Prior knowledge:
homodimer; alpha/beta; 434 Repressor (Amino-terminal Domain); Rossmann fold; 3 domains; six-stranded parallel beta sheet; six-stranded mixed beta sheet; 13 helices; 12 strands; 44% helix; elongated; DNA-binding
Amino acid sequence: MTRIKETLETLSRKTGYSTTTVSRVLAGKAEQYRISKEAVRIIKREAEKSDFIPSSVAQSLRTHRTNTIGLVIPSVDNQYFAHLAHVIIEEARERGLMTIILSSMEDESNERIAIRSLVSRKVDGIILVPSGTDPFFAEETDETIPIVLIDRYYTVGSRLSYVGTDNYQGACDAMRYLVDNGHRRIACIQGPEDSSPVRERTRGYQDVLDQVDPDGYRCIAGDSFTVENGYMETKFLLNSDVPPTAVFALSNTILLGAVQAARESKVSVPGDLSLICFDDSVFMDYLSPAVTRIGQPTYEIGVLATKLLIKRMNGADIRENRILLPPKLILGQSVRSI
Amino acid sequence: MTRIKETLETLSRKTGYSTTTVSRVLAGKAEQYRISKEAVRIIKREAEKSDFIPSSVAQSLRTHRTNTIGLVIPSVDNQYFAHLAHVIIEEARERGLMTIILSSMEDESNERIAIRSLVSRKVDGIILVPSGTDPFFAEETDETIPIVLIDRYYTVGSRLSYVGTDNYQGACDAMRYLVDNGHRRIACIQGPEDSSPVRERTRGYQDVLDQVDPDGYRCIAGDSFTVENGYMETKFLLNSDVPPTAVFALSNTILLGAVQAARESKVSVPGDLSLICFDDSVFMDYLSPAVTRIGQPTYEIGVLATKLLIKRMNGADIRENRILLPPKLILGQSVRSI
DNA sequence: TATCTTTGCACAAACGATTGCGCATAACAC
DNA sequence: GTGTTATGCGCAATCGTTTGTGCAAAGATA
């Protein structure tokens, strides 16, 4: 109770020193300002005794630093983003920064509102998973408050910093694996087409098939990173005239939908249908069969993004900076060799 | 760029009105203070044109409100807490509140540091999953900043508000289900013993068995909410002289470990071993067999906790308030009738 | 004794908003 | 013409820090 009402002013009164001196002592600048040992002792003792906690609000107003970063993600209720958020929160905390999380729910207008709030709160930097396609607002903000994009980037030639997975490479790896196991009739269930990872991944799908089977089967279906989408599209595929022998699901959620659809239709995996997907998750190994997948280096993305952001917060002028990290093929038993 | 540097002062200069008037107009208090239509028009136009975003920092300092709540959870990298966080973030946002997430990693000292940071940042309220056993610090903080506990509560008679699952009821439901299916040799793999949900759940385990089989088999093993713990303890159990016919895992993580152990030991679920656990999760339905479990009402917990917190932030004096919400038995195929 | 340095600290102005109070000027009543 | 009320707005203090500058007292130097 006392603790919270304490201010430099009250401490000043109690110790007989000015707020200036108290402030300097508590900021560890006693030496620098030649405060006597005596004063330091008295002030520190009193501060400790009353458990003084300085107001970051006042500090921020005065110093123009909030020691806070903003994190805008679609939703924390998604393993992939939750893990990313976790890594970022921890990494930031180790460097004395707090994290404010805002969810955009994949909505462009939410995203703008979120950025505005963060600007209003004077955060020192922003890590953003862009949901929209228009980089203008973010770019303008970036002039003053550094922004680092993760997971996705804006369509057109935006100069915003970016850290993410090499999605093209990942998709190629997945497709190569299927192809090497004899698959040719491979369908791809995607997320929203205006998302950069989707574009990169479908490009990988196309390119690999174009190499090994130029005029063969092609099927890119779906439009969102949801279980429902995965379910629906798989249903369609399974009921088509000549169903694919393998499905490449572009996210963990889509995969779950696919699994459900297959199970419902009594289609055995990998007996009748092989599955491979993007995103890793603890539970992927617990499914039967365990899912073969492309794991994204979420830890590395989170750490690198935070580090890059902090560098820029400290004035480094490394605006145009795109970092692509390699994905990893994780083998399960969901792909059959045919 | 302009946008971010704008202040009441600059707007005042541009429009020729005082900061007082500008402030009042932008706060929607023009009527109240009899500002002319003319002035309102000019000021609003200018504010819009330069996209003025007021500094929440300055506002907070002056008004003693940050419109921010703090959320301290073990880790967002856990489906259960991630979902809880998601619900709270959304609920808070709808009421104009931002959420700062701090992870305690189940560590008491981290928890205190987290609370201190939140106090320093002058958050308007705190939602906390307590990791420690000593309520003192939280209680003292609660004198000034309302705190609502979720998921767990402190051991001794703390008066802090609390919203959570009726863990005893849930455990009884789970045990009843096992017993009704003929099981008597039931082992329980628990989390840390000083956590209130663990105590409530093991109490349910005991009570049900005491009713149906007073002198029968009892086994409560384990000590943490981790996959490893579930794995290890299950290994032990499976190798004991007379293994249990069913395992009651007290969390989703523990369950995963149990599944892994059973799979490794070629023990069929539910053929040789029945499984039931606490916590719901999307993927529980995708395991084979789907896991029979006790789902916690996370959505309701999140919403109620936020609402309760906001009420208290607005001055309601409802300190001692413990809300227990009913869990739900969700049937899978992981329990065999014997 | 007079001057210069060092020591030890405080004054007061910021930071950017909000808000109690007050003060012109205009409108109106009589 | 005088008193009263309404209208429209600004002054200046305040929130709790940080920080550039200044200044008295003590010590050193000559």
